[in-house]
Amino acid sequence: xxxxxxxxxxxxxxxxxxxxxxxxxxxxxxxxxxxxxxxxxxxxxxxxxxxxxxxxxxxxxxxxxxxxxxxxxxxxxxxxxxxxxxxxxxxxxxxxxxxxxxxxxxxxxxxxxxxxxxxxxxxxxxxxxxxxxxxxxxxxxxxxxxxxxxxxxxxxxxxxxx
Length: 162
Hints:
By secondary structure, the protein is an alpha+beta fold. The chain has helices at 70-87, 109-124, 132-140, 147-152; strands at 3-15, 20-22, 27-28, 33-49, 55-59, 65-66, 92-99, 159-161. It is 30% helix and 33% strand.
């Protein structure tokens, strides 16, 4: 089955946009200035699987993978459903994700996580060559406006593995 691994960097906002002009599309009220952190990345591997449900795995700090908290799973599944609709697909995914930095440490782990998730899913669905602008928009629609920044700054360039 097709499999894609993507790394997307976290970012720190120096000037936050404070508010949204369109919550449904995660569009900020004001501009922001941020810096991407190329050593603080989320790596996400997604492969298409046979089955009725997506599998979502989150790396543990000391090794191994576990099933994430229900709220995190819900957000990931919502984004996967959005990507399936966009791609016109009914495929199911196995998702494995890990950060090279602590989650919930103020380094936009949700931004890098949803950027990597979006780009890896697009690659697994055979749509990895979609424009950066469209993929950034899809990442932003995850609910993390900063995911657009992380997706546009992904590192390294994605490699398609089949």
